[in-house]
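Design request, tokens follow.
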């Protein structure tokens, strides 16, 4: 969540005190080469982590409730400010843990948002990461930086802080585009699944119904699925075949 633990003035003071020796060294080296480090203003950088999962037969996103100004009490994408001594990915993983207690998930860098007025505190540029995963593996819990944490249907969201509605809309559009050339949808499924369950994932992401016959014909023709030989009951219908993802055929998509 994009929440500073101290005021902007306190943060600037802290940055002057803690890395003083290192910063002086950097300044000296820059000055030795004739570069003025104060020539340009330094915008703040944050990371936001969009985590989506298949829950209650719906595509849902993990949100946190903000603890402090700005947008206190509003729901937001987990994230926060990047420290001077950490990479963007390390910052994303740290913020995710600090706000939701989630760790050890694969994150993919998605896009950078930098409209000048997106944050009322200061000039803030955010780098967005996202992950699709099975929520059953997670035990989410609000930590020190958040009042609450919960899952919400991506097509029925509460009012969001900052420009996070725009970020989620962009994420969904990118996700839909990836369906045609990646195996990203399989991240939302258990190891074994039916064709009906796979089609349901595609329909939730695309937010529309798909013709059953055409979908199955296309998916099976790629060789991306491997028949496990097992079956599963689905309602009152006859048992459905269980498939699993075939990594060896991933290039076929």
């Amino acid at each position: 969540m994009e929440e500073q633990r101290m005021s902007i003035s306190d943060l600037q003071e802290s940055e002057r005190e803690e890395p003083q020796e290192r910063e002086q060294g950097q300044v000296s080296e820059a000055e030795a080469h004739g570069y003025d480090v104060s020539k340009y203003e330094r915008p703040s950088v944050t990371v936001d982590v969009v985590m989506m999962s298949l829950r209650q037969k719906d595509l849902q996103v993990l949100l946190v409730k903000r603890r402090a100004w700005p947008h206190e009490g509003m729901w937001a994408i987990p994230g926060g400010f990047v420290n001077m001594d950490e990479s963007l990915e390390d910052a994303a993983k740290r913020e995710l843990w600090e706000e939701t207690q989630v760790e050890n998930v694969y994150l993919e860098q998605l896009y950078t948002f930098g409209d000048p007025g997106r944050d009322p505190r200061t000039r803030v540029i955010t780098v967005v990461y996202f992950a699709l995963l099975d929520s059953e593996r997670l035990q989410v819990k609000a930590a020190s930086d958040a009042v609450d944490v919960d899952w919400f249907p991506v097509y029925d969201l509460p009012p969001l802080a900052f420009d996070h509605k725009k970020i989620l809309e962009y994420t969904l559009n990118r996700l839909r585009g990836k369906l045609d050339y990646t195996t990203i949808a399989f991240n939302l499924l258990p190891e074994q699944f039916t064709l009906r369950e796979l089609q349901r994932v595609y329909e939730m992401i695309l937010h529309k119904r798909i013709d059953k016959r055409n979908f199955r014909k296309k998916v099976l023709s790629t060789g991306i699925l491997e028949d496990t030989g097992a079956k599963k009951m689905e309602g009152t219908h006859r048992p459905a075949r269980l498939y699993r993802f075939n990594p060896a055929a991933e290039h076929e998509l």
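Comment from the thread starter after seeing the answer: thanks! The chain is about 30% helix and 25% strand.
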